[in-house]
Structures are given as C-alpha cells and as structure tokens.
Amino acid sequence: MIALIAAVSAGGVAGTLLRFATSNWVSANWPRHFYLGTLAVNLIGCLLIGLLYGLFLHKPLVPVELRAGLIVGFLGGLTTFSSFSLDTVRLLENGQIPLALGYTGISVFGGLLATWAGLSLTKF
Questions:
Q1: What is the pTM of this model?
Q2: GO annotations under biological process (predicted)?
C-alpha cells in the first residue's frame, strides 16, 4: 500500500508541476489567451488517459503502482476541471460570451473525442 501511495503522490506532483509550468508559459507568452494552457493540458490529458487505459487493458500485468501513478497521480494532477470552470467564468465576466461558449464546447467535446481517440489507438 505504501508503494501505491508513493506512486500516486509522485505522479501527482509531476502532473501538477507540468500543468503549473504550462499555465505560466501560456500566460507569459499569450496573456490574452490565458485559457489555452488549461485547454491544452485537458485535451492532452484526455488523449493520454484513453491511450493508457486502452494499453493497460491489453497489458493487465502492468503493476498497479505504475497504472495508478500514471492515471490517478500524473493525469489527475495534470488535468483540471476546476481551472476550466474558472477560466470560463472569467471569459463570461469579461463579456466574451462566444469565446466562453466555444471554449466550453471544445473542452468538453474535444476531451471526449481525444479520450476516444486515445482508446482507439490501442485497438490494433
């Protein structure tokens, strides 16, 4: 159990730091498009969770610590719905209603599509 907790913790730290670095980089380079960092990590995270889930279905002998460390820890730390929600509210508060609706649609449907695509890549 200690190894599982350590794997999830290490993955979570790595995912969180990558999300933090991505958001900071986007904000520094494109301050008007602050939401793109969250969008990028959420779509990439959705693709990766589908891909990893599919791979782990085909390779059930992968240690549970590695599976949990990557999916629960790393991807749980990398992706974030709360930041997505805050970004959307900020866009709405700034009167950018079409952009907020587009961002919401791309995040939700793009995430679903990316998860499906990642899972589909494992069906060879």
A1: 0.81
A2: cellular detoxification of fluoride
DSSP code of residue 74: I
Structure tokens at 2: 């200690």
CA nearest 111: which of 35, 41, 57, 53? 41
Annotation: binding site: 76, 79
Q: Where are the beta strands (DSSP E) in 11-77?
A: none
Q: What is the pLDDT of residues 48-104, one digit of tens each?
A: 999 999 999 898 899 999 999 999 999 999 997 888 998 999 999 999 999 999 999
Pair of tokens at residue 7? 């794997």
Cα separation, 24 vs 50, whole angstroms = 26
